[in-house]
Amino acid sequence: MSQINPLKSSAFRITLVYILLFGLSVSIILGFIYWSTIVYKTNLTDEDINAEIKALSAIYARKGYPGLVSVLSERIEQQRPGDSTLYLLTDHQFRPLVGNINRWPPIAYNRGGWLDFKLDDLQDESGKEFSARARTFEVENRFNLLVGQGMKDLQTMKALVGSALVWGLMLTIALGLIGGMMMRQMLRSRLGAINQTSRKIMQGDLRKRIDTRGTGDEFDQLATNLNSMLDQIERGMDGVRRVSDNIAHDLKTPLARLRNRVEELKMRVAGKPEEETAAEQIIQEADGLLLTFNALLRIARIEHSEQRKDFTQLDINSILADLHDLYEPLIEEKGQSLKVETAAPMELEADRDMLFQAFANLIDNAIKYTPHGGEIAIRSYQKSGHWFVEFSDNGPGIPEAEHENVLQRFYRLDQSRTTPGSGLGLALVIAVLKLHNMQLSFQDNKPGLKVLITIDRPGRPDKNQVTAS
Questions:
Q1: How do beta strands 337-341 and 375-383 pair?
Q2: Does the pLDDT of residue 462 top 50, yes or no?
Q3: For 142, phi and psi rounded to 5 degrees?
Q4: Stretch (H or E) spanning 27
Q5: Topology at the third CATH level for domain 10-158
Q6: What is the residue extent of each domain of the chain?
Q7: CA separation (Å) from 100 to 75, 145, 185, 253?
Q8: DSSP result, 30-78
């Protein structure tokens, strides 16, 4: 059976969607935390600056210019290391009068607005270029006052939160991958059990059922529904088989009586060519029907056999040798050749008569469809822990599209309908191989057909399936 491309499997797509949704949701949460933290810190800075400006405005209103200069000088002198509050008072031409920075920021003046700027000639404690946020306002059209704060703390916080965001996202992706793989494994496990059982059922073991875990989830409901459907299908097919088997059983006896009476009639019309020929044709038709009924009954007995009472220890190669001795005269009579090659002994527990009949059916088909002068070969060999028995010929073969169909009861290819037969030979072969846990497959012999039977070595796990490819 062909393997599904992992990139095209539903489990992979579900895992991918899970990871994307999980990563997106966590990214949104972390992004919101980042945004709200930075906005909160920025708002605090703006509130401090506004409060300082209001205080200085009140001082100027009470004490005028000398009082404002005095307070600014005092606050600058009292600043502690690490205090990043900025003060600068200039005249209307932006020449510094009082302040802890020596020049107006090199950006456009925004009256009463906010300024975000950097000072190339000033560095913070870490040696980086000094960046600040400030607000300016004009004092009686005579002076310009700037009050601000260094943004080192805010930048540090941005770096920390940004780093935490990156690591959190990476951790989220890692956890998402782990969770996704666990989900994928769970899906594969549940669906794999259903697929494995389904393959065994498709290969003929209608008694197989899908296991449930008793959780009552969607998979258990699916398995329960499929099992109910399989029960109905099995009952229907058993009913059809019982009807055909009962018909074969009930008609076999009267058909045998009819044949005997035609034999008596043939004796009575001896010497009359036309009547004798007609009686002989009826006898041949009756013999063909009896063979068909016998084949149906034999298949039914094999399929419904639960015991292996006739199984004995035997060597597969001995059956092949007996087949060679039995069919060699017939093959020579038809101008064909038979070649048998056997490997080391292949001993196992099996029903010799059943296997002999199954192998004989395969040789019969090869003889029937191989032309005059054709070659038929039987080979046994061992490879990769399995035993193989191979039947090949150089006849017309079977189209690949018909490989499954020819294993059904009464199915015959169009070119085979003019030859004697009932279409039950391969059905009997499948029934026997299934009882012995063997597998059958068809291959192109170029030209002709190759029938390959795969046998598990004793002591290896049985596959308990029959496949046709």
A1: parallel
A2: no
A3: -115, -35
A4: helix 10-77
A5: Beta-Lactamase (3.30.450)
A6: 10-158, 218-303, 312-456
A7: 10, 12, 66, 123
A8: HHHHHHHHHHHHHHHHHHHHHHHHHHHHHHHHHHHHHHHHHHHHHHHHT
Q: Is the pLDDT of residue 465 over 50?
A: no
- What is the rounded average pLDDT of the residues 86-102? 86
Q: In whole angstroms, what is the distance from residue 149 CA to residue 131 CA?
A: 9
**Beta-bridge partners for 389:** 380, 453
465 contact partners, CB below 8 Å, separation of at least 6? 199, 200, 203, 204, 205, 434, 437, 439
Tokens linked to 265: 């009639």
Tell me the average pLDDT of the chain: 77
**Angstrom distance (rounded) from CA 101 to CA 87:** 7
pTM score, whole prediction: 0.46
The CATH number corresponding to 218-303 among 2.60.40.1120, 2.40.30.10, 2.40.110.10, 1.10.287.130 equals: 1.10.287.130
Superfamily the domain 312-456 falls into: Histidine kinase-like ATPase, C-terminal domain (3.30.565.10)
User: What is the spatial distance between Cα 347 and Cα 351, in angstroms, rounded to a whole number?
Assistant: 12
Residue whose token pair is 């980086």: 128
The single-letter code of the amino acid at 445 is: N
